[in-house]
Amino acid sequence: MNNYEEKTNQFMDADASADSGETSFSFIKSLIIDIIIAVILATIVLYFIRPTIVKQSSMEDTLHENDYMIMYRQAYRSHGPERGDIIIFQSSLPDESTGKDKLLIKRAIGLPGDEIMILDNQLYINGEPYEEDYLKDGYTPAFEVPYEGESMTVPEGQYYVMGDNRVGSIDSRRSEVGLVDISQIKGKVIIRLFPFNKIRTF
Q: Which residues are catalytic?
């Protein structure tokens, strides 16, 4: 091989090496951009929604343990819950498995200004019997807040919440939960995604 051929081969090897380096750099750059875009999109999505799994039976038969839910975080930016909304809120009940306070899933029943009374297993709102076709057992026993036959008015900025499983739900009727302040509410349950045969919106 003469000197000319040797130099030509050296230039070709250098070009091939440069092309390989540029290809690797382009791939890495593209990968980084894709990761950044994915992180930004995930952040945006999680700003609006949050997946959550039901870990209790207090909302049966509407929701069951291990149901996979989507919570809409921004549901109450401009207004509070409407009666019947299924909400997730921060309670002061300790979660022994995590050491943190529990997030609870309940139904908003009493709105600010409403008068709540429970008498003979019947819920009354503003003096009228309130009919609920989603209750597991079909009736609402009274506990402490308010006591049987007594009435209470829900203060401004607070909500009276109960689980659909009224017999087995620890909710606003119990002093350890009580009324829920709007600041405690994390969002509204908008859809159940799993089990797949029970997908529904709320």
A: 58, 106
Q: Which residue has the tokens 């989507």?
A: 70
Measuring CA to CA, how many Å separate 173 from each of 64, 93, 168? 21, 14, 12
pTM above 0.90, yes or no: no
Preceding amide of 146 cis, omega within 30: yes
Q: Which residues contact 197 (CB under 8 A, 6 or more apart)?
A: none
138-156 pLDDT per residue, tens: 999 999 999 999 999 999 9
Q: What is the 3-state secondary structure (H, E, C) of the chain?
A: CCHHHHHHHHHHHHHHHHHHHHHHHHHHHHHHHHHHHHHHHHHHHHHHEEEEECCCCCCCCCCCCCCEEEEECCCCCCCCCCCCCEEEEEEEEECCCCCCEEEEEEEEEECCCCEEEEECCEEEECCEECCCCCCCCCCCCCCCCCCCCCEEECCCCEEEEECCCCCCCCCCCCCCCCCEEHHHEEEEEEEEEECHHHCEEC
Task: With a cut of 60, say whether residue 77 has pLDDT above it.
Answer: yes
